[in-house]
Each structure stands twice: as C-alpha cells, then as structure tokens.
Amino acid sequence: MNGSHRCARWLLAAVWIAISWASNAQETSMTLDQALARARQRAPRVLAAQDQVREARGRLTGASVLLQENPVVETMAGTRYSAGGNTTDYDVSIAQPIELGGRRAARIAGAQADVDRETATRRNAVRRLLGDVSVAFAQGLAAQERVRIAEASSHIAGELLHSMQRRFDAGDVPILDVNLAKTNAARVRAELRSAQAALVSATGELRILLDMTGDEPFTIVGNLKDRHRYQLDSLLARAGDRPELEALASEIREAQAQVKLGEGFRWPTVAPAVSFKRDQGDRVVQGGISFTLPLFNRGQELQAVGAARTSRLQRELDASRRAVTTEIRTAYEVYATQVTAVEELERDALPGLEENETLARRSFEEGEIGLPELLLIRREAFETKTVYVERLLDAAIAGVSVEARAGVLQ
C-alpha cells in the first residue's frame, strides 16, 4: 500500500514538472503574432494614447452640458429706519445666463472632433508601434541566424586550428599555417561575439517596446524566409484609411466648429431672472431679463483663427494624401526589389556553397590547394551566408514598411 502511494506521489510530481516545464516553455517562446498582440495590449505608447482619448471624451462631456454657466444668486438685506418703526427689508434675485447663436452645438462639434482626432492618433500610435515591433523582431531573427552561422564557422575554424597545431607538432606543416588558422579562428570568434551582441540589442529593444522587465526570459521564434505577396491596387485602395489622415480631417472639423463658435458670439447672452424682496413690509415678486450687447467682442478672434487653421489643415491633408500614395508605391517597389535580391541569392549563390566547402576541404587534405586557398573559400561561403541573412532582413523590413504605410498593421 505504501509502495502504491509512493508511486502515485512520484507520478503526480512527474506530471506537475511536465506541466510546469510546458508552461515555462510556452512563456519563454514568442512568435511575431504574440509580440504584436502584447504590444496592442500592454505597450506604454498605446496605453498613453488611450488615456488621451479618455481625456478628450471628458472634454466632450463638459461641452455637452446644457448650460455652460451656473445660476447667479444675488442677495441684499438691511434695516429700514422710519418714524413709524424700523423694519427689515431683503432682496433675493436668481438669474441664469443662456447662450444663443448655436454656441453649445459648436462646442459639442469641436469636442467630438477632438475625440475623433485622439482616436485616430491612437490608431496611428498603434500602427507605428507595431511597425517598430515587427522590425525589432526581424532584426532579432536575423541576429539569431547570424549567431548560428558564426557558431558553425567557429566550430570548423577551431577544428582546423587544432588540426594545424597537431600537424605542426608532427612537422608536417610550417608555423605560417598555424598562425593563419589561429587568425582565422580569432576573427570568426569575434564575428560570433558581434552577432551575439546584435541579438542582445534586438531583444532589448523588444523588451522596451513590449514593456517587459529586463529579467523576463523569452526567445523569439520565426522564419525570415516567410514572405508575403502584395497587390499594389489593394494597398493603394487602403491609402485613405491611414489614421493620420483621419486625424487631420478631424482637426479640420474642429477648426470649422471654432469658426461656428465665433459666429455665435454675434448673438447676445441672455439671463432671465426672478427676484423676491420685501419692501416696507410688502412682499414683491419680479421677473426680468438681462443681456449682453455684442458691440465689440463678436468672436472675431475665434473666426479668424478658425478660418486660417481650416485653410492650413486642408492644405496639409491634401499634401498628406498625395504623400501617402507615393509612400505606398515606393515601399512596394522597394520590397519587390529586395525580394528579387533574395531570390537571386537563393537561386544562384546558396546551392553550391556546401559543395564548394566540401570539395575545398578534400582538395586541401589531398594537397591540391594550400591553407590560404581553403580559408579564402570558407571566408567566401561565410560572407555569402551572412549577406543572404542581411538581404532577408532587408526584405522583411521592407515588407513591414509596406504593411505600415498601407495601414495593414493596426
């Protein structure tokens, strides 16, 4: 019975360890989609933009209040001295200022335009953030691949150095070959350290963008060879959805509302009032109205500034629309060119690299070529692989640019 209990406990412990290991493994690996999802939910830039939207909605709440000014209460009291005796008189009046000329509607329209602008600004912040995250992610994948290439090259260089040292000790090769192998091994190790530093830099940038702590473990997972096919017409059709264009359009509506508000000041502000007083022992109830005379301040500043701002923003919007179209076309052409560069390397350069290295090693062992020729061939292969990774990274970043400029990232 005790043995059965011990077996059950061991089984439960093994299951718990397996679940914990699987959970930790899931937490430490991050795909691009997971990184983008985390950025949308937790990135400081996005949260700050959401707060700005809430601030704008608060201003809309204030503008929607039915009456902008509170009632005004005036009171007076005192003693009336007379031969027949002293009496206490008082006077209480209540007045409520009321705006005319559509000023409340203009304020609401301006505040709503402000909400729309901040909402579009938030979308634009998300677009830019997702672009930055995607680029940092691609840089991390490229750094991982460069580390892998450098590690393999460093391992081969170390074996070659060990072989040269052994053959030198046996008197088969001169010290020159040992020194060449040693220099090659040191250079490859240095390149490995550089690639590792680039990986640390890229993951550090991701930590900042995703608001991760410095000790939170994670590993990025993906493939730089994944490429998308875009249709230029479809991309251009989305040009009008760019959030910064919507933000400019909202600012234009806000400026137009400012003009309407200024025009409303041509109308007086009226204040209906009612008063209650006691005069010589009699109670008196009176009603009245007061109003401003818009002789001097007729909203000239609001109208002039709003009109000038509307004109300026409209020009900016027109120019931005043209610029967005050009940006999308340019990004598409750059991406297509970068993909072509990658495909040329995949077709013409990469297939023969492994074979060349194998043939060179065999020729070296058979004495057909010397160590400098072997190192030159290996250096060429290493640089070709590194260039291939760089072109993959360029294509990935160009693809991010296409999606960001066309508004696909959101």
Strand order of the largest sheet: 2-3-5-6
- Please identify the structural class as seen in this structure: alpha+beta
CATH topology group: Outer membrane efflux proteins (OEP)
Number of helices: 10
What sort of overall outline do the alpha carbons produce when their principal axes are compared? Answer: elongated
Q: State the oligomer.
A: single chain
Give the integer mean of the pLDDT values. Answer: 85
Distance between the first and last residues' Cα: 61 Å
The CATH class is identified as Mainly Alpha
The share of residues in extended strands comes to: 5-15%
- Proportion of helical residues: 55-70%
Instruction: Give the count of structural domains.
Output: 1
Supply database-style keywords:
410 residues, alpha+beta, Outer membrane efflux proteins (OEP), 4-stranded antiparallel beta sheet, two-stranded parallel ribbon, 10 helices, 70% helix
Task: Write a concise synopsis of the structure shown.
By secondary structure, the protein is α+β, with helices and mostly antiparallel strands.
What does this structure look like?
By secondary structure, this protein is an alpha+beta fold. The protein has one domain: Outer membrane efflux proteins (OEP) (Up-down Bundle), CATH 1.20.1600. The strands form 2 sheets. It has a 4-stranded antiparallel β-sheet, with no helix packed on it. Strands 1-4 form a two-stranded parallel ribbon. A hairpin with a 6-residue loop joins strand 2 and strand 3. Helix 3 packs antiparallel against helix 4, helix 7 packs antiparallel against helix 8 and helix 8 runs antiparallel to helix 10. The longest helix is centred in the first third of the chain and has 67 residues. About 2% of the residues have low confidence.
